[in-house]
Amino acid sequence: MKLSQKEIRILLKEWNLAWGKHDLDKVLALFHDDIFFENWTGAYIKGIKALRKAWEPWFNNHGNFRFLEEETFIDEQHQKVLYRWILEWPSSEPGFEDKPEIRKGVDVIHFKDGKIINKLTYTKTTIEIDNKRLPLHL
Predict the structure, then answer these.
(1) Could you tell me which of 124, 120, 125 has the C-alpha nearest to residue 81?
(2) 74 with 107: CB under 8 angstroms?
(3) pLDDT tens digits for 1-24?
(4) Contacts of 48 (CB under 8 A, 6+ apart)
(5) 3-state class (DSSP) for residue 15
(6) Strand 66-75 relative to strand 44-46: parallel, antiparallel, unpaired?
(7) In terms of Cα–Cα distance, which of 94, 97, 87 is closest to 121?
(8) pLDDT tier for residue 82 given thresholds of 50, 70 and 90
(9) What's the CA gap between 130 and 138, in Å, rounded?
(10) DSSP result, 80-132
(11) Alpha helices in 31-75 (DSSP H)
């Protein structure tokens, strides 16, 4: 099943709304059972059950996060998306704990059977706290 560009945009809108509501069940419903997720540290997870297990603590402990869409590029033919985002959340950086942090990145998203099969996350190596650019500590 191939998604049209319009269907991909609708799915991404649902995805953004689910993230905005911090609704892990709705976020995961948009992923393929065989999801491959790689985060900004290079760590990766295979399978929807493993992703739920990994994300549950993050959703529970980082309730004040929000993603803002900056730009989205859709390749309908290859069922791929480049999604540029801004993450705003309480920082966990040493010396800046709980201060508002801004992090910027890109997700490379692939679709299969109408769901997200690959989500590869890349982030800048700098973050913004108190209007200052600081190196990211992973």
Answers:
(1) 120
(2) no
(3) 899 999 999 999 999 999 999 999
(4) 28, 31, 32, 33, 34, 35
(5) helix
(6) unpaired
(7) 87
(8) very high
(9) 19
(10) EEEEEEEEEEE--STT-TTSEEEEEEEEEEEEETTEEEEEEEEE-SEEEETTE
(11) 48-61
